[in-house]
Write a structure and sequence with these properties.
This protein is mainly alpha-helical. It has a domain of about 80 residues: Ribosomal protein S20 (Methane Monooxygenase Hydroxylase, Chain G, domain 1, Up-down Bundle). It is built from five helices and no strands. Helix 1 runs antiparallel to helix 2 and helix 2 packs antiparallel against helix 3. It is elongated, with a radius of gyration of 30 Å. It starts with a helix and ends in a 17-residue tail after the last helix. About 10% of the residues are buried.
Length: about 160
């Protein structure tokens, strides 16, 4: 047991981080396990399981739970195993099957696009907004204070 104040705090921080990281690490492990079992059984849903495992590994690597090279190595092994997998025989579906209602797909967030270029003539024609004095003062960057000069004493 630590008796130094800073080490006690460091232990608390490490415990919090360990618990936080455990969620992402566990999700990645279980996704890999599911993907491996789907690939070994040549299940038709193995591609979905593979994509989920890759996603979980990327998420864990982005959060720093596992190293990015570790994630890359695991993804590589999974994809290699998926490529070797023999394709599963797909059975023909009966003709009178009702379509299954799919869950609504959430739209992906829009990516920011570059602003359309405005001709120079239009830009010059627009009046410039008035800048308040307080805003102008804030905009001016303060210069760092100069270090005081050292006094030198001459010895005679």
């Amino acid at each position: 047991m630590a008796n130094i104040k800073s080490q006690i705090k460091r232990n608390r921080q490490n415990d919090k981080r360990r618990l936080r990281n455990r969620v992402n690490r566990g999700a990645a492990r279980s996704a890999i396990k599911d993907a491996r079992s789907a690939i070994e059984s040549s299940a038709p849903e193995s591609k979905d399981a593979l994509m989920l495992a890759i996603s979980q590994l990327d998420r864990a690597a982005a959060k720093g739970v596992i190293h990015k090279n570790n994630a890359a190595r695991r993804k590589s092994r999974l994809v290699k195993a998926f490529a070797k997998m023999e394709p599963a025989k797909v059975e023909a579906a009966p003709a009178m099957v009702e379509p299954v209602a799919e869950a609504p797909v959430k739209a992906a967030p829009r990516k920011r696009t570059a602003k359309a270029e405005v001709p120079a003539a239009e830009v010059a024609a627009e009046p410039k907004p008035a800048v308040k004095k307080a805003a102008a003062k804030k905009a001016v960057a303060k210069k760092p204070a100069a270090a005081p000069k050292k006094k030198t004493i001459k010895k005679e």
